[in-house]
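Researcher: Next sequence.
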Amino acid sequence: YIPYFFKYAETAPTPNKAMQTLSDNGLQEAVNLLLGGYRIARIEGSASPEGPEKKERGSFKNNTVLAKARAEQGKRLLDERIKKNLDGLMIMRSEPLKQALAASYPVVGRAELFGTDASGKEVADPALMSHLRDKLAAPAEGQPDPLAQEHVIGAGLSVDAQSADQADVDAFRTGRRGDRRLSRDERLQAIYEP
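Model: Next structure:
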């Protein structure tokens, strides 16, 4: 699993320089894995469930569209990186990258990663924070962490991504960054906006 981070509610790269570096390193890691014989299983895009960044409230219906657009942009970015790497390779080493460019695999938008209830319905804004606190609470010993299962934290991410993401998850779960108490919006930004 290799993440790529986008600007809030857009398909442009995140303005966060540390996350830009992680995204760029991830693209090169994907190319290196392809050169090592790995194949692309799928590209998934996702979107945050809290909706638009402006102070509008209520249901935001474009998360599926945004998630799909991010997946498509991720594929374009990966294809560009593969083509850039092809320029400097000898013919016999370039075959895995040529195969990756020609391959067909799912490019899908997942939309509501944690903002839906058990029936798949979007949780309305007034209940969202309570829903997320319950759903994303630190797991009991021996239980899986839903954030690790969705590759937000944990195995499968680079060490740099793990430490950056874990700090944000801890801020969301505790409601604090260091000694400072976080507002509701700051907690949502910690969990959803790199």
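Model: Residues 50-59 have pLDDT under 50 and may be disordered. The CA atoms of residues 14 and 80 lie 18 Å apart.
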